[in-house]
Write a structure and sequence with these properties.
Helix content: 10-25%
Number of strands: 16
Shape: elongated
Number of helices: 7
Distance between the termini: 19 Å
Strand content: 15-25%
Largest sheet: 6 strands, mixed
Length: 414
């Protein structure tokens, strides 16, 4: 899920400027009476709150090997991030845990060992570990073919790695088919045997678990951002990919007029089209089990409902509107190009935009037409292009940001 390095979870800003103090003279007798009443009220509130608490539950016990592990641990201590919830279990394996023991603990908690799939997610886990500096297992294995790493108990190949420079396949024996994250080495990974209980420096290997939180809502009853059962970026994504073939292929089976087109020579006038959006409008977050409806948002939606999690900035072979609409809300510029636009010209335009601003999305789409095969969108506005966008001038940047007066609800220009 800030590039997911930007803050995604909404914040509630409350005005706490209240006049809580009045200038009155008060004698000692009245002050004493007020204090007694206040103290008594406070005690009564504590008694009432205590009566509302559920009865204390007894934790069961599970034995794994020679280690005694607690089962049915409470939900306290889980840290919510945009990548899911994490929790450290520093007091379970007093002599260190091996890989299978760590797996058992996490599964008992309804989670799994961390599936770290980006530098930002690795940094998030490292920050959580800073409260209890201890090496931990991560959910990565190479048990079936040396050097072929996958997320354990899945068929998903690993796509992100953070191994120590000196920790290569050649430097390890065949038993080094599991991975630990070592905080002392800046969050770098080390290959090791799955039965090991200590890291490369003799420290005990502990446990951190990851799980998807239940669907949670913010104070406005909008589904919160971050991985959850509502949207984990994986389950149900086929719902948003129904137009993938049509939006990425230039083929007459999709449109009888499809043919390779090129941008015309000349200076682009960059005519803009803007929608009037109420300043208090906040688009809804729609879970993956529901379709997103853009009827009523115009032929070219410049704002509207979307999935709870936005996409990382950059170029995509295809990114559906349900994702990049969320990026618009956070001040991102989206470049859409028709699948029939000449490849070399697409490459040129991509280079211009990526060098022009950091917060951008690039994806093919059928929203642009054959006559105007390029489209730039920001919150509330779009530009459709038919001529060469030849340079990233100050005028271009100003047009994309400051020139468009309708700023997104969570505008963060960059």
């Amino acid at each position: 899920m800030k590039d997911l390095t930007e803050p995604l979870l909404p914040e509630l800003h409350q005005d706490r400027n209240q006049d809580i103090c009045e200038k009155k003279s008060i004698n000692l007798s009245r002050l004493g009476t007020v204090l007694v009443i206040t103290f008594t009220t406070f005690i009564l509130l504590l008694i009432i709150l205590a009566a509302q608490l559920p009865p204390q539950q007894t934790m069961g016990m599970t034995t794994i090997g020679s280690q005694t592990l607690f089962s049915n641990l409470d939900n306290l201590g889980w840290v919510r991030t945009i990548y899911g919830e994490y929790k450290l279990f520093p007091d379970i394996c007093l002599a260190g845990c091996d890989f299978d023991e760590a797996v058992a603990v996490c599964e008992e908690q309804g989670g799994h060992l961390p599936f770290i799939q980006s530098e930002e997610e690795n940094e998030e886990v490292k920050n959580i570990l800073s409260t209890s500096p201890q090496s931990v297992w991560i959910g990565l294995i190479s048990k079936y073919r040396t050097g072929s790493w996958q997320l354990y108990k899945t068929e998903d190949a690993a796509t992100y790695f953070n191994f120590l420079t000196e920790d290569t396949e050649e430097s390890q024996d065949e038993d080094a088919s599991c991975v630990i994250l070592e905080v002392d080495d800046g969050g770098k990974w080390r290959r090791t045997g799955c039965s090991q209980r200590k890291d490369g420096k003799g420290g005990l290997v502990g446990i951190i678990c990851q799980r998807l939180p239940n669907v949670t809502e913010d104070v406005s009853m909008r589904v919160m951002m971050g991985k959850s059962a509502c949207d984990d970026g994986q389950k149900g994504i086929e719902r948003d990919l129904q137009n993938l073939e049509r939006d990425t292929e230039c083929n007459e089976k999709h449109n009888n007029d499809d043919k390779i087109v090129k941008l015309k020579e000349g200076t682009e006038t960059m005519a803009e089209h803007c929608d009037k959006i109420h300043e208090k409008y906040v688009p809804n977050h729609v879970c993956m089990n529901q379709a997103v409806d853009y009827s009523g948002f115009g032929i070219i939606p410049t704002h509207g409902p979307h999935r709870p999690n936005w996409a990382s900035f950059g170029e995509y072979s295809y990114l559906p509107i349900e994702r990049w609409q969320h990026n618009l809300e956070h001040g991102c510029v989206v470049l859409l190009y028709h699948p029939c636009l000449d490849y070399q010209e697409v490459t040129m335009v991509k280079s211009v935009l990526s060098g022009c601003m950091r917060k951008h999305i690039i994806t093919p789409s059928r929203l642009p037409s054959l006559t105007r095969p390029l489209m730039l969108l920001a919150w509330g506005c779009y530009l459709d292009e038919k001529l060469h966008l030849i340079s990233c001038t100050w005028r271009t940047r100003r047009k994309l940001y400051q020139g468009w007066s309708l700023y997104p609800p969570t505008d963060d220009q960059g």
